[in-house]
Amino acid sequence: MLTTLNEVLLPAKKGGYAVGLFNTIDTDMLQAVIEAAEELNSPVIIGTAEILLPYGELALIAPSVVDCAKRAKVPVVVHYDHGLTKERCREALSLGFSSVMFDGSLGEYEKNCADTREIVEYAHALGASVEGEIGHVGTSGKDSSADRYTTVEEAEDFLNATGVDALAVAVGTVHGIYRQKPCLDFERLSELNARLGVPLVIHGGSGLTDGDFRKLIACGAAKINIFTDLTLAGKAAMTEALKVGMDYMELRNYKVETIRKEVMKKIRLFGSAGKA
User: Fold this and answer.
1) What are the strands, taking DSSP E only, across the chain?
2) 166 near 186, Cβ under 8 Å?
3) Any idea what the CATH number is for the domain that residue 12 is in?
């Protein structure tokens, strides 16, 4: 069933577990994620990000993603992640996405607040949810500096100014493959969780240890984003399939099954199995 962030993240925040967002840029990944969520009776968040559109354009993937969510046996949020432009966020909503993230974290603070608030008003009028970001979650090898970590004061101010339903915070994770051990500020996350009334989101989840995930959730993370781990699982499956001489159809199904198992691993780890 198609739903919004509020329906899956507020229970997660209250219940002390997290719901995974798994970006799905094609129907192979889409099938793997939905089957995993249904098998474990878990709510799930699927979608894509603006930076991923060259590999699966919105107008191409939206019909299948939205329809699959509506037919699913579990709650499914279709989320547009890291929307960098208001135009693309509106396009995603027009195509049936039930949630969007507007990410103005690299721009001026006042503009980030104003643009995010505009998207919140637009999305809420359509019954959709909105995630914002304050601080900045960088990319591995490019920007992982501690001075962009989220502070409680700016987070409270941002929430009051925008009215977002969920907030992405920077506590030491980065997007992509970790080239060095991340410096995670669990104490800061706990403080943010204690002071803020909305579910908190961790970006850059791929590559963290199981212990890291458990501690992040214990400190208040209600949504954790995963993409790189899925692509690595898919790539490994295709490499193995080619080595043993599978044909295209066999390779495709083997890739789906491998990604499905990786999603199931994360669902169990996040504690959302049986929560649908």
Assistant:
1) 2-3, 19-23, 44-49, 76-83, 99-102, 129-134, 166-169, 200-202, 221-226
2) no
3) 3.20.20.70
Say how many domains are in the chain: 1
* Adjacent-strand bridge partners of 77: 3, 45
Domain that includes residue 103, residue range: 2-270
- Give per-residue pLDDT as tens, 177-233: 444 566 788 999 999 999 999 999 998 877 788 999 999 999 999 999 999 999 999
In the Cβ-directed half-sphere of 128, how many Cα atoms lie within 13 Å? 26
Confirm whether 81 is a catalytic residue: yes
Average pLDDT of the chain to the nearest whole number: 91
In a domain, 217, yes or no: yes
The helix or strand, by DSSP H or E, that contains position 107, with its residue range, turns out to be: none
Q: Assess if residue 190 is contained within a domain.
A: yes
Q: Which residue out of 81, 115, 165, 212 is catalytically annotated?
A: 81
- Does 230 reside within a domain? yes
